[in-house]
Inverse folding.
DNA sequence: GCGATCAGCT
DNA sequence: CACAGCTGATCGC
């Protein structure tokens, strides 16, 4: 759960993913993805009033997030005030104070965050330096190094601060099986069940949130079976998702939901209400996607766990693991990193302790003693930083 | 009637 | 296995 309060030190006149309290005064709003815990205040009467009298205030987000947001009637009043920004397209935005006329320009770039459809990170460049707000993200090891717009002149940009998704920033969550491993595990479980007979069906027990779509599309693609869902109008303009979904209950893979779904399932009933096909009872298993993690040295076990006669848990994560966070942040090597989330059982100070060694300042002072094996590399590091004109970044990052 | 908050549940 | 959000109770306007 994000505890980011909406504002960044460097650019306090913009608000991201929070729309209450201090954020009511923002000159521009940003939404990283369409999850409710990042939309606090976004439909409150106070912000609605602000919008009516401040006609130059806009909400910026990705095209997909705009589509998902405006599909909900509760947020449709934003229609004339949302500006979609293309992914990976640096875009200049004027931050104007409507009372004083004071103006500041920033360039924002949206980078894919891999959290849910439309989810992005925001890279801001302006007079107070370059900062990165990650929103919620899941990026595999090495993905930051493959993002062109994080780079300039062949090296990573000089980033002052990163506002980071630290959901799993705890060595306890050292590794989480990759998206591909998890997908393959679920795919083979579903395949092994539904190929037994046309009466064998699977219920994917997913939460009410965006983020499972790539699971549905991959299963559908691989198995040639559309996934039953309750609603799909939000995807009406996203054919790559839409074509893999159906509201026709006559399919072997279901991701429909109902408040009493667990109770239904015990009575061999799917959330959409069906129990049989052509008068023959269905044979049903449930698969609950949930996060599974492993310590640095603990043996990785199966990405599928059987939890009952007909029930399974399957590994699935919307967020980067500790090692993925380390890889990301140490590659960016900012001056500062601030946690957007405090994992349960940890404190702000503890999370900062984990982030500090991955940032720049901690690398500048050479330790008094170094293992002999590292001495040679130190020389090349010093040379690198001399060659990096005007950039005080130290290259152990 | 609506919103904010919290407990409980998943 | 810990994310995200729903439901329902309660309180205040």
């Amino acid at each position: 759960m994000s505890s980011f309060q909406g504002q960044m030190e460097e650019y306090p006149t913009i608000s991201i993913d929070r729309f209450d309290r201090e954020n009511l005064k923002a000159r521009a709003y940003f939404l990283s993805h369409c999850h409710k815990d990042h939309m606090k205040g976004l439909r409150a009467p106070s912000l609605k009033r602000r919008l009516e009298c401040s006609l130059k205030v806009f909400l910026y987000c990705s095209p997909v997030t705009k589509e998902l947001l405006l599909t909900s009637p509760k947020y449709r009043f934003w229609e004339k005030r949302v500006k979609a920004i293309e992914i990976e397209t640096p875009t200049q935005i004027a931050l104007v104070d409507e009372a004083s006329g004071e103006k500041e320009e920033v360039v924002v770039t949206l980078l894919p965050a891999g959290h849910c459809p439309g989810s992005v990170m925001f890279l801001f460049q302006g007079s107070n330096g370059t900062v990165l707000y990650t929103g919620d993200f899941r990026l595999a090891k090495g993905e930051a190094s493959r993002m062109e717009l994080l780079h300039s002149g062949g090296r990573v940009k000089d980033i002052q601060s990163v506002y980071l998704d630290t959901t799993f920033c705890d060595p306890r969550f050292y590794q989480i099986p990759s998206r591909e491993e998890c997908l393959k595990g679920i795919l083979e479980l579903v395949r092994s069940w539904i190929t037994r007979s046309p009466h064998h069906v699977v219920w994917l027990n997913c939460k009410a949130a965006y983020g499972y779509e790539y699971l549905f599309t991959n299963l559908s693609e691989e198995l040639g079976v559309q996934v039953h869902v309750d609603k799909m109008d939000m995807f009406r303009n996203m054919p790559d998702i839409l074509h893999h979904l159906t509201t026709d209950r006559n399919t072997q893979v279901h991701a429909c939901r109902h408040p009493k779904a667990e109770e239904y399932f015990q009575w061999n009933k799917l959330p959409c209400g069906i129990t049989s096909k052509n008068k023959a009872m269905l044979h049903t298993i449930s698969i609950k996607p949930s996060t599974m993690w492993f310590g640095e040295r603990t043996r990785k076990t199966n990405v599928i766990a059987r939890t009952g006669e007909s029930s399974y848990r399957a590994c699935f994560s919307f967020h980067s693991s500790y090692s993925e966070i380390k890889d990301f942040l140490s590659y960016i090597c900012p001056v500062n990193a601030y946690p957007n989330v405090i994992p349960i059982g940890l404190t702000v100070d503890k999370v900062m302790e984990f982030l500090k060694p991955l940032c720049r300042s901690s690398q500048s002072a050479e330790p008094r003693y170094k293992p002999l094996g590292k001495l040679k590399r130190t020389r090349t590091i010093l040379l690198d930083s001399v060659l990096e004109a005007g950039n005080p970044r130290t290259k152990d990052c």
